[in-house]
Specification:
The complex is a heterodimer. By secondary structure, chain A is an all-beta fold. Chain A has strands at residues 4-7, 10-14, 19-25, 30-38, 44-51, 56-59, 62-67, 72-77, 86-94, 102-104, 108-113. Chain A starts with a strand and ends with a strand. The chains are: A mainly beta, B mainly beta. Chain A binds chain B through residues 31-32, 34, 36, 41-46, 49, 51, 89, 91, 97-107, and chain B through 4, 6, 31, 33, 35, 41-45, 48, 50, 55-56, 91, 93, 95, 97, 99-107.
Chain lengths: 114, 113
């Protein structure tokens, strides 16, 4: 059974700092790995999706990597801003199940201080 | 940009009552999902729906739960007899298909008294 873990649970950094959020998964037979952002009281906004055949994806100041053999993904945020403050979730979609059944980590709550 | 919309944003219901949560997925999407998030816990998969039938459901999705796509636009989650432990944020999501991201609504906060 796939399990997704995110460390740390919370992170506080000063504005401008580069940072890395970590995600690990137990079953390497994934179809894709997604990173989401969740603001308080809001839904989930998809940030990046990495297919199982890919190693990384980039969007603006965000870069996500995937290493299936070690069961890890990282989300790198460059030059962090106060507006990046949110909870970041990673979710794995496995092969073999129905498409789109996402298994989520508990998230990393990021606070960027001005 | 098209988005998934959910209503109501907050629903308060007495234990034992039926509740229906409503979602309008993105119009050209083919796959539909319900997830829930109990306060302080992970987002959990409940059910997926494709081609007018349930594709997969989790252990949480027992006989008290049902889903429907009554017309070409709405997707509903019904809880027949609510329990205190059903209190959670319920998210609807849709997917066009293939290796594309799911799009989530803002959720319905369900409070059972």
């Amino acid at each position: 059974k796939q399990e997704v873990t995110q460390i740390p649970a919370a992170l506080s950094v000063p504005e401008g700092e580069n940072l890395v959020l970590n995600c690990s998964f137990t079953d390497s037979a994934i179809y894709n790995l997604q990173w989401f952002r969740q603001d308080p009281g809001k839904g989930l906004t998809s940030l990046l999706l990495i297919q199982s055949s890919q190693r990384e994806q980039t969007s603006g100041r965000l870069n996500a990597s995937l290493d299936k053999s070690s069961g890890r993904s990282t989300l790198y945020i460059a030059a962090s801003q106060p507006g990046d403050s949110a909870t970041y979730l990673c979710a794995a979609e496995n092969y073999g199940g129905s498409q789109g059944n996402l298994i989520f980590g508990k998230g990393t709550k990021l606070s960027v201080k001005p | 940009e098209p988005e998934v919309t959910q209503t109501p944003s907050h629903q308060v219901t007495q234990m034992g009552q039926e509740v229906i949560l409503r979602c309008v997925p993105i119009s050209n999407h083919l796959y539909f999902y319900w997830y829930r998030q109990i306060l302080g816990q992970k987002v959990e998969f409940l059910v997926s729906f494709y081609n007018n039938e349930i594709s997969e459901k989790s252990e949480i999705f027992d006989d008290q739960f049902s889903v429907e796509r009554p017309d070409g636009s709405n997707f509903t989650l019904k809880i027949r007899s609510t329990k205190l432990e059903d209190s959670a944020m319920y998210f609807c999501a849709s997917l066009i298909g293939g290796p594309q991201p799911q799009h989530f609504g803002d959720g319905t906060r369900l409070s059972i008294l």
